[in-house]
Amino acid sequence: MKKLKIPARKKWGQNFLIDPNIIKKIISVLNPKLNNYILEIGPGKGALTNELSKFGNHVIGVEIDPMLSNYLTELKLPNVKIVNESILDFDCKSIPNEYVVIGNLPYNISTPILFKFMNETYWKQLVVMLQKEVAERIVSSENNKKYGRTSIMMQSFFDVELKFHIPNTVFRPVPEIKSSLLSITPKKNTNLNYENLKLVVEKAFRHRRKKLTHNLKNIIEETKLNEVKDSRAEQLSVMQYQELSHFLIKK
């Protein structure tokens, strides 16, 4: 690949992977079937894209930076199509087959990106680099300061696995924040209503230090609420929140 003299843009949270060993380690976590498309979020200078092009799958790289988008397009990597757009605006329904997702998520919009894919249906696996703190929050369990709304919502609908931590020295420019790699796959037949669970979790954590008898009053049926009334939000497990979501007061 030819060298590129385009500076990283802070407004897009750009930090480019440069370590070939880490690149191979990240890609080894991705497990696409031959008919799966690969959606890459923010291909940047193409460190992952170049390796992904060798899989034989169709690769769609969504890159917000027009200069990088032009550069990647001009490389004419086999099996690769570059789209100059924000991933938050990209229409995933335009991908004709089931797909897997890989990318180094910009720290400033990593949570909105994750929630975008919570509402998509045809992807089979997400392999994403995230801020270490965010990744640990997602996989956290009850009775932990990092446990919260994101932990419960993600773990309710997905199997999440923290694969490994990534040193900041493998990026250029070197970020102050450390990263981790997550593998996320959708759960099947959860029998959960997303909006109901979201409502319960948001109300429970709105006043984190107050007991649930206060936070969920007039939300959960009284008999069910009495089972957890003396608990605080971070003390209930993911499964307990799922159960509560089936006992909303009907209005």
What descriptive keywords fit this protein?
elongated, Rossmann fold, Helicase, Ruva Protein, domain 3, two-stranded antiparallel ribbon, single chain, 7-stranded mixed sheet, 32% helix, 251 residues, alpha/beta, 2 domains
- Uncertain runs with pLDDT below 50, 5 residues or more? none
Shape: elongated
Distance from first to last alpha carbon:
61 Å
Q: Superfamily at the CATH H level of the largest domain?
A: Vaccinia Virus protein VP39
- Give a quick account of the main beta sheet: strands, pairing sense, barrel closure: 7 strands, mixed
- CATH top level assignment of the largest domain: Alpha Beta
Secondary structure category:
alpha/beta
Overall average residue pLDDT: 90
CATH architecture identity of the largest domain: 3-Layer(aba) Sandwich
Number of structural units classed as domains: 2
Helix and strand succession? Answer: EHEHEHEEHEHHEEEHHHH
Helix content: 25-40%
